[in-house]
Amino acid sequence: MNLFELPQPTVPIAGCDELFPVRRIYCIGRNYEKHVAEMGYDVKRSRPFYFAKPADAIVQSGSTVDYPQRTEDLHHEIEFVVAIGKRGSDIDVADALDYVFGYAVGIDLTRRDLQRAAKEKARPWETAKGFDQSAPISAIHRAADIGHPAEGRIWLAVNGEIRQDAGLNELIWNVSESVAELSTLFELAPGDLLYTGTPAGVGPLVRGDEVTGGIDGIDEIRITIR
Ligand code: MN
After folding, report:
1. What average pLDDT does this structure show over 10-23?
2. Which of 6, 169, 205, 225 is 20–30 Å from 133 (CA)?
């Protein structure tokens, strides 16, 4: 018997009663050109790079998120999220969509001041990216139901004012390429989520903000910052 009874983080699946159990959360950095530019980097098509958040950083859409400790610059990053449904490694780009269970809308909450400090000192990003409640997500929609979105509008608004507005067609690395590349670094398994990076327009959140976002053809997300 286990010493502690720990909850399994889950995400609702649209249109069915079953829940998607979260195993790992991977994220891509710099996957939209205008966001790469706004962060002060050269837009060059090298390989995508990844970081991770703990599975229990997941927050359901509709939740209130506490403004995190140790930051004065909490940023929103709206993201297209891929949910993995099949085990595999060294996956071919041509086969990668077979490993996708479905899609969701996520927000990669970021302590930008801690990230900036980490970059300056060439230190890891965990404290900037992998904190409690840092991974809000909508319901997951099965690819069997919605297909594989590749060009819908992706947007985020704060208190009704649009801050991020782009298209999935602007992704530097598409879903197939991102999943295939990730699978050369880690064995992918059912329950894995991949946040595929954010478009331009990231910015600060303050207590009381109502954050909404969405991706055409998938879903919308809503959180409140407390
Ligand atoms: Mn991000």
Report:
1. 97
2. 169
- 150: domain CATH number? 3.90.850.10
Is 217 within a domain? yes
For residue 87, how far is its CA from the centre of ligand 1 (angstroms)?
24
Question: Does residue 46 or residue 20 have the better pLDDT?
Answer: 20
Residue at 5 is within a domain: no
CA of 58 from ligand 1 middle (Å) equals 14
Question: What's the 19 CA to ligand 1 centre distance in angstroms?
Answer: 24
| Rg over CA atoms, the chain | 16
Per the DSSP assignment, residues forming a β-bridge with 211 are: 158, 223
* CA distance linking residue 78 with residue 56, whole number of Å: 19
Domain count, the chain: 1
Q: What is the DSSP letter of 222?
A: E
Cα 196 to averaged position of ligand 1 atoms, centre (Å): 7
| Structural domain includes residue 145 | yes
Task: Give the tens place of pLDDT for each residue, 21-64.
Answer: 999 999 999 899 899 889 888 877 677 899 999 999 999 999 99
Whether 3 is covered by a domain: the verdict is no
